[in-house]
Design a protein that fits this description.
Elements (H helix, E strand, L loop, with lengths): L5 E8 L2 E7 L9 H16 L4 E6 L3 E3 L4 H5 L3 H19 L4 E6 L2 E3 L1 H7 L3 E5 L3 E3 L13 H9 L1 H10 L2 E3 H7 L4 E3 L4 H12 L4 H13 L5 H14 L5 H10 L23 H6 L1
Parallel strand pairs: 2-3, 3-5, 4-6, 5-7, 6-8, 7-10
Antiparallel strand pairs: 1-2, 8-9
Helix pairs in contact: 1-3, 4-5, 5-6
Amino acid sequence: MQPETQVELTSQENGIYRIRFSSEQGVQILSEEVCRQLGQLLKVIAKQPPRILVFEATGRTFLAGAELRELAALDRRAARRYSRRGQKLFRKIAELPCLTVAAIHAACAGGGCELSLACDFRFLSDTARIGLPEVTLGIIPGWGGAARAVRVLGPVAARRLILSGELLPAAEALQIGVADAIFPDAEFEASVNARLQRLLRCAPGAIAVAKRFLAEGHHLDLTDLLVDESRLFARCYSSPEPPEGIAAFLEKREAVWPVDKKRPKDEGDESPTEAESQKS
């Protein structure tokens, strides 16, 4: 039996992959079956990541959240398993080495918001709303949304998002950092595409290294963070991207990044010793 919400990889061109959610009713739901299918797509994409992965949808919503009938059937033990499965799924998104973008054209609630928080960027239509309404159902976000709201947005914005249970207008979402940019609804698709073209100017290997630094840095103190920064900076030079990027800048042209060539690797990483760190 086909799920009401369809999730499919709709295009693979110019370094940009698009995963689209759709339904006949225009209200997309993240049922367990839809999540399973999304997980399969992400597994395939992770083997050969694109430059940018875009999540988009059609209809009256971007994503309206989890299937309420599935939530109602949970007991305490099942709820923990349900939460961990969702966290594992969205962690796959967060750990992709490529840029990830949630293109949110309409209401984005609950699990949909949690998915977007796992992305690097959230672009909203000026008519879209976004939020975590779980507290109005007697629960809290359980697919990583509560944790990522604190980590990505900070405690003040996380409090606004989680404790109010409201779907925030796009302008307020931008103000507190939930949205990275908002575009006029009538120009949303064109504006998102223009922003994606700007992001394609970034070196894919450098993006992968930078994402690793950002993901790992939260638990480090400043001294360790500086050591990690130096190590990952040096790693960039295990790829041909720095010579190309610098040459392109000096020659006033667009950089041509190598496709599926050597990316920065861990090989040859030399973390400074404690003494070296103190000297620097």
